[in-house]
Fold this sequence. Notes:
Structural class: mainly beta
Shape: globular
Strand content: over 45%
Amino acid sequence: MSITVTGTIERKGFGKGTWALVAENGDQYEIYAGAPKELLQQGQKVTVKGEIRKDIMTLAMIGPVLEVQSFDAD
Length: 74
C-alpha cells in the first residue's frame, strides 16, 4: 500500500537502534533498511512517499514498516 506521510524523523533505542517517522497525527512508522542517509537525521521534518511492507517483521515492532520511495525535507 503506497502512502504519503508528513512528520518527524526520530531515532528509537531498540536493540541496535532503529529509525522511525512519527506522523503529525501521532502514528509511527519504522523506516525500512536502505533509506537514504539524508533522510535519517534526528528531528528532521519531512514528507515521505513510500510503501507499507506487510511481508516483513522487525525486532523493534514500533509500527508498520515503511519502505521510502522519495522524501522532501520541510
